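Researcher: We're teaching a course module on how sequence relates to structure. For the next exercise, students receive a sequence and then see the predicted structure as tokens, so they can try to spot secondary structure elements on their own. Here is the exercise chain.
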Amino acid sequence: MPVPFWAGHYIGLPFRDHGRDRSGIDCWGLVRLVMAEQFGIALPSLAHEYAHTAEKNRIGPLIERESDNFTPLPAAAEKLGDIIVLRLHGQPMHVGLVLGDGQMLHVEDGIDSSVARYRGPRWQDRIFGFYRYEPF
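Model: And here is the predicted structure for the students to work with:
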């Protein structure tokens, strides 16, 4: 599946700790913004769940805590709109949004939001898991 046209509207958003809008955004804020604008899904903010970016190792556990709404997916079952959780420093602390063709939309501290290959050399071995948000 090719990357959707609308993904271009999210490329280049600046990183900001706890950012939740287009003026500045962290990785969860980006996923949350896209899910709201493109899929009509309101995800929890989680902005008060971690003090700063270095404590985002709580992201993976936060998604698991919300397991009533986030379904873990088997390998290669991900599709457009699913959430990918990635390890940084060995911890599940980074998220992106699956776009298709092994690509994700994400943002990192010091790097504006962009599209990256999660099946490429930088991210492949860091995949913690994929999750699909399925409200009640």
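Model: If you want an answer key for the exercise: The longest strand covers residues 91-100. The chain has one domain: 5-45+55-133.
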